[in-house]
Amino acid sequence: LFASKPLPTYLECQNDVSIIYIAKDYFVQLMQLHPLIAIRYATLCNEKILFLNDRIEFTQINSCKDKIIRY
Questions:
Q1: Looking at residue 67, what is its pLDDT?
Q2: Which among 37, 65, 48 is positioned nearest to 9, based on CA atoms?
Q3: pLDDT tens, residue by residue, 6-62
Q4: Taking the complete model, does pTM exceed 0.85, yes or no?
Q5: What separation in angstroms does the CA of 8 have from each of 1, 3, 34, 43, 67?
Q6: CA 9, 55, 68 angle in degrees (round to 5)?
Q7: 69 pLDDT more than 80
Q8: Is-contact 47 56, C-beta < 8 A?
């Protein structure tokens, strides 16, 4: 959302879904008006960072035995 360059995203769903688009400017206004939205968004970003950090650490483990122990 706040990256300096566009971040292309590709989604593939197994079932039919409905999608809602919220423009960046509007979402920023929502976060300013409702700080809980900003906190929840920051929490979501933090959880994604932790998940990706774990994935990076896991891929750096060399032996299968260590990967099983880590898992």
A1: 66
A2: 48
A3: 888 888 999 999 989 999 999 999 999 999 999 999 999 999 999 999 888 888 877
A4: no
A5: 11, 11, 27, 22, 31
A6: 140
A7: no
A8: no
Give the pair of three-digit tokens for residue 68: 């099983």
For residue 49, the Cα-to-chain-centroid distance in whole angstroms is 7
Contact 41, 31 (CB under 8 A): yes
* CA–CA distances in Å: residue 47 to residues 4, 15, 25, 31, 61: 21, 25, 24, 19, 22
Q: How many CB atoms lie within 10 A of CB 12?
A: 4
pLDDT at 63: 72
Angle at 6 between CA 45 and CA 37, to 5 degrees: 35
